């Protein structure tokens, strides 16, 4: 289990090494073409040192990588691994911690996100009122101005659901999420109505684990699985904690969490029955 930037560097390095091999170049060849020392190419490929998005772009030029989506992904990963970056979230770098910026950078480039939530509505599906209430409860004593900015970040993240192409978002929610009155009855009612609306997007799928399901895998904590276009080698699981996030990137971990998510979906209500239950709760 590693922190986000370390995982990003290592996975980015592995992908760059794979692309170099595919181009038929040795590390010595790549270094010569770029005017680098061979040791720099080796350090980048092993994740021992970071690399800037601009340098990644130069490497991809040398390796004749023309796939614009893959190039964009790898350049963003370089930024999130400590090499800089120009995503919208960097405007908030004085407000949000590095691990949150890293999470947003992954979310912005992922093609698919699968998540289990056991206590709150996922951030991508929150209303402004609900996001404000959750943030205020989580960060007690936060000044109003800072709170407003954090809510703005939360809502801006949601653009990925309506991007082109949009993020494919699948969430399994514990039924408790729908009954916990975060922000009070009115805020919660608006949030439930929003869930009904967003669940109708073709790229969003919601499933509820009803109380009747009893215990289930993942009961002790939520998780997020990020998957990326063109390659599964960059997939990562994120476990969120109160003061930090842990990133799991071993194949065994990815397989275990993917299997767990499939099990959760099999035990959860169908999307149609989920929508019916949310509607019924919103009217009660």
Automatic annotation (TrEMBL):
PROSITE patterns: HTH_CROC1. Residues 16-70 form the HTH cro/C1-type domain. InterPro entries: Cro/C1-type_HTH, DUF5753, Lambda_DNA-bd_dom_sf. Transmembrane segments: none annotated. Pfam families: DUF5753, HTH_31. This is Helix-turn-helix domain-containing protein.
